[in-house]
């Protein structure tokens, strides 16, 4: 069987897009098959282990650093990883869910939760992103099945509209404060095991978290973050300066984010 990462996923229904618009996330079955997971997953996991710089044992790390090993922009490190990240299948889904004419790459990030790795505290990704609108989406792609004891991602449905908690980075405080806000607002927490090949997509302002990895095997995940093709850089803050310099080099506030690190990955074909 030939691996073709550009082969489109089945068309999303109006009901699925409406659900994403309402809840700020969606889970899709069978986005990848077993051969595709093995082909890309082996390389992505190898790169993560080789390139990560975390040397402390788990018990000596902060809550953030216990959550996972992470490496960004693997697409610049390997032809196989580049093929995955720049592929049109995920990008096409992202454009459909965001309801935009095209999407660019913001960046990719592998998330390797070691056996015994801690929780990923509740947070919203866009706290770190110097982006001008909410038209951003993360594809969370497990590289194996993720049973509940391995720490699957969970989402607070509808929380993308909540502003309280957006000013908190990933931390013990964000876990406490966001969980409290979600409980008070009666935002349901949705989680559960991921089947092999299942992928979730969530908006940049959707609050989410993950449990600890209680398995004796690592939970290896690749994420790709997409943004509206016409997205502009906004003035940076203390929390967004690093991302602006790292993922949008040379772009000035008010300009379209079209650096060499932000290629257009998918555009709708005009009728």
From TrEMBL:
InterPro entries: Phytyl_CoA_dOase-like (IPR008775). Signal peptide: none annotated. Coiled coil: none annotated. It comes from the Eukaryota. It holds the Pfam family PhyH. Belongs to the PhyH family. This is Phytanoyl-CoA dioxygenase.
